[in-house]
Design brief:
This protein is α/β, with parallel strands linked by helices. Helix content is about 35%, strand content about 10%. It has helices spanning about 10-25, 40-45, 75-80, 85-95, 110-120, 120-125, 135, 145-150, 190-200, 220-225, 230-255, 280-285, 305-315, and strands at about 65-70, 95-100, 155-160, 175-180, 210-215, 260-265, 285-290, 300.
């Protein structure tokens, strides 16, 4: 498979970048765990060249022309109320939500986001490690929401704040992508940089996105260094909450109020200074949907999984998911009988 020529991050670079932002940006850095299993990586690498399953090229109808997925890395559901995340609380009041959604095992950033954006578990997508291994292993070998949407002629955009997400930047699937290059000076992005990149895109001349993904890393950075649910973590949650407000405001300016649907979720939670286990504090995540067609103020019953994010995004856009996906559209979050947008 083609491999994007990203530079490897040196250990020294990781340590320097862990400390410097703490002094400059309110103590919001973090260490990032790495996977250690070698056999799953080898098996995945052998399967990565397999052709992607194709689905029908037609869009049978759709509820919106624009879907925005926002992932807040390491956000525990109970942190929303505890730390007064005003924007997220507003989206919950005006939309539909679950505070008991579940991520996969291992509950780590890269495996979990891969499931979030491919609709399948780690047993199918094969990514169980949690570091940037693109130079060795290439890109994910199963279809992503970006590729499936683009195959139907839709415009895709993605903003990743960690280099490990390069695994999801499959060539010719994302029309507009921004992420750190790696190395000493560009290993991770903070919320201010992220919202600047999103704002520049939405307020620029590039085609408006039909599917856009935004990753915000602050809670995870703070949790790893200072612990989940502490004061610094709370500040990071509020910082991420403000970033969500900026993204929504810029989307309204570009797409028009009421003309798009937002899904806000997380890849994992955390406890103490870690995550990745089957502990409910690690695996339980929020799932909030807001905007066009959404039932206001409703709480979803248990049963939401991170793979459902991919399935719901495609369903909203009228794109069929591949056979074998384990994620399902959360149709009960939307108004029954809502008129679908006509397809020319």
């Amino acid at each position: 498979m083609p491999v994007r020529p990203f530079g490897r991050r040196a250990v020294l670079g990781r340590r320097v970048l862990l400390v410097a932002p703490l002094l400059l940006a309110g103590a919001l850095g973090a260490t990032v765990g790495t996977g250690t299993a070698s056999d799953p990586r080898a098996a995945w690498a052998m399967d990565a060249s397999a052709p992607h399953p194709r689905v029908s090229a037609s869009r049978k109808g759709h509820l919106t022309d624009h879907v925005i997925i926002i992932s807040i890395d390491g956000l525990r559901p109970d942190a929303i109320e505890q730390f007064g995340a005003a924007t997220l609380k507003r989206l919950m009041r005006e939309g539909t939500f679950s505070l008991s959604a579940q991520t996969i095992l291992p509950s780590r950033t890269l495996p979990s986001h891969t499931s979030m954006l491919t609709g399948v578990g780690a047993d199918q997508h094969g990514i169980t490690w949690n570091s940037d291994e693109v130079e060795e292993l290439g890109h994910v070998g199963v279809p992503t929401v970006f590729g499936l949407a683009k195959d139907r002629g839709l415009t895709t955009a993605a903003f990743f704040s960690k280099t490990k997400f390069h695994h999801l930047e499959v060539p010719n699937t994302i029309d507009y992508a921004r992420s750190p290059d790696g190395g000493l000076l560009d290993s991770r992005w903070y919320a201010d940089r992220m919202v600047h990149e999103v704002s520049r895109y939405l307020r620029g001349d590039a085609p408006a996105p039909n599917l856009m993904f935004v990753h915000i890393g602050e809670p995870d950075y703070a949790g790893h260094l200072f612990g989940w649910m502490g004061r610094v973590y709370g500040n990071a949650v509020r910082r991420a909450d403000g970033a969500v407000a900026r993204v929504v405001a810029d989307a309204e300016a570009r797409l028009g109020r009421g003309n798009f649907t937002v899904i806000v979720t997380a890849d994992h939670g955390g406890h103490d200074k870690t995550h990745g286990s089957s502990d409910p504090r690690d695996t339980t995540i929020p799932w909030i949907v807001w905007g066009r067609g959404v039932i206001p103020g409703a709480e979803l019953a248990v049963g939401i999984r991170t793979m459902d994010t991919a399935a719901t995004a495609l369903w909203l856009l009228g794109v069929a998911a591949p056979t074998g996906w384990v994620g399902h559209p959360v149709e009960r979050a939307f108004r029954p009988g809502m008129t679908e947008i006509a397809i020319p």
